[in-house]
Specification:
single chain, mainly beta, Neuraminidase, six-stranded antiparallel β-sheet, 9% helix, globular
């Protein structure tokens, strides 16, 4: 869902930015106080594992079948693009209340964007919004990746043409000091993950030199600069291989392919051929220190997406 969302966001900003910004800036609501559920249509029906016609399954004996995360994260809206901190106690995700709402209205609904939840006694608590822009400025933020006190996120926002990567710093209890990230635009960095030691940047891209569609690439940092990306050929196919996620120890690389999650293991320093782990309609993995895998599961009816939830597959 998110890939489509941001493609549409680019088109909306380019074609109608003036209108969007004007409408957004003229709204005097206090966006900090808007609840997610207040924007979900009253007619929305929450899909559950019992009513899901395409429940995700585990294809590995290492993992239990995936289930929705417990607590208050999932709603009848769309929770997407999860990112779990290594300790497993903080979960970031993208939210929009109604996937049928035009993108230009999502931008200004006051709730579409990045949220986070804390886990207490095994239950995820009521999420809070992450604000990454000045008040009353139009933006569409997503694709969040957090490492220490730094967040990388992609955004379409007022004052910029198209989509860009930004970074923000966590200081005094909130994210601030957002600025353009230092990725070379020639690299065409798509959704990303960075190794725990900060030395390798994995991302998907349709840049030239790949096997076709989206490929996984890696750029290594030398003297503080990201070097020319290399194709991670062992995990790529002629189709779309994207949304890379590294395990905290750096020995597993998870990717999304054919509406399922696949895992490659590093053996003797080399990535191996990926194995299918979870599906169907499973994507955008993120892994905690114990090996539990969090991901997005989309719900469809008559080939139309209804909503999305964050699921977890627990390592046995």
């Amino acid at each position: 869902m998110k890939k489509l969302l941001f493609i549409l966001l680019i088109l909306v900003i380019i074609i109608g930015a003036i209108i969007v910004v004007k409408n957004f800036s003229g709204n005097s609501q206090n966006y900090h106080n808007i609840l997610r559920k207040s924007k979900i249509p009253a007619t929305a029906i929450k899909i559950t594992p019992q009513t899901d016609v395409n429940p995700p399954k585990s294809f590995s004996l290492e993992y239990s079948d995936p289930v929705p995360v417990l607590g208050k994260v999932n709603t009848a809206g769309a929770e997407d693009s999860a990112f779990i901190l290594p300790d497993g106690n903080t979960l970031y995700f993208f939210f929009t209340p109604d996937v049928n709402v035009p993108v230009e209205k999502q931008i200004s609904d006051g709730v579409t964007g990045i949220w986070f939840s804390k886990k207490i006694n095994g239950q995820w608590q009521e999420p809070e919004r992450v604000f990454l822009n000045d008040p009353n400025k139009a933006d569409g933020d997503g694709c969040e990746f957090v490492q220490g006190d730094i967040m990388y996120f992609c955004s379409v926002r007022e004052g910029y043409t198209g989509i860009h990567w930004f970074s923000a710093k966590f200081k005094n209890g909130r994210w601030q000091e957002w600025k353009l990230a230092d990725f070379n635009p020639d690299y065409k960095v798509g959704e990303l993950d960075i190794s725990s030691d900060g030395s390798e940047l994995y991302f998907h891209s349709d840049r030239a030199g790949g096997k076709g569609g989206l490929d996984i690439w890696v750029s290594k940092k030398t003297n503080g600069r990201w070097q020319e990306p290399e194709n991670v050929s062992a995990v790529n196919t002629s189709g779309n291989d994207g949304w890379p996620a590294l395990s905290p120890d750096g020995n597993e690389l998870w990717i999304t392919r054919d509406y399922a999650l696949w895992r490659s293991e590093k053996i003797n320093g080399q990535w191996q051929t990926p194995e299918k782990m979870f599906g169907p309609l499973a994507g955008e993995a993120t892994i905690d220190n114990t090996g539990n895998v969090y991901f997005t599961h989309h719900f469809y009816k008559n080939d139309k997406m209804i909503e999305a939830d964050i699921y977890v597959a627990r390592k046995k």
